[in-house]
Amino acid sequence: MTETGNAMYAGGANPSKAAALRGIPSARQMTEWIQHGWRPAGTLVVVGLALLLGWGVVNGKHGLSAWQQQRMQDRKLQQEIQELQQENARLHDHIQHLKSDPDAIEHEAREQLHYARPGEVIYTLPEAPQSNSTEAGR
Fold first, then answer.
1. Helix (H, G, I), strand (E, B) or coil at 7
2. Is the pLDDT of residue 12 over 80?
């Protein structure tokens, strides 16, 4: 039995040849295509995923760029903390000095509050005028 243009499986005819003639790939052809065709495609997919993952590691929300930025901010804050601790220690020493030294108390009163001893006269001089750029050029 045959149809026009297509061979049908009839008794002793080879089924793979009949399938090939009909345009349907045989199991062997499918296996070869899977082995040879999918490997390169699979490799491309894996490489693409690896590149995407690498980009995410470098530029992602928690990537290397963000990590470096956080590290720089951490260094800046650590330096600021150290400076504030030094200022705090200096002010603490100044407070202890004022509590224990009467001469230091007198010095601060004279400097900040403009206190004077009986019989002293304090002269306050005006600040020196700032020179303009036109006067500096003459």
1. strand
2. no
What SS3 class is residue 127? Answer: coil
CA distance 88 to 94: 10
Instruction: Output the pLDDT for position 30.
Output: 77
Greatest Cα pair distance in the chain = 140
Cα–chain-centroid distance for residue 137?
A: 50
Between helix 27-59 and helix 64-100 the angle, nearest 10°, is 20
* CA pair distance 90, 82, nearest whole angstrom: 12
Q: Which two tokens stand for residue 79?
A: 């330096």
Note the pLDDT tens digit of each residue in 43-59: 888 999 999 988 888 88
Contact 76, 83 (CB under 8 A): no
Helix (H, G, I), strand (E, B) or coil at 2: strand
For residue 77, the tally of other CB atoms under 10 A from its CB is 10
Is the Cβ–Cβ distance between 18 and 8 less than 8 Å? yes
Alpha-carbon distance of 80 to 129, in angstroms, equals 36
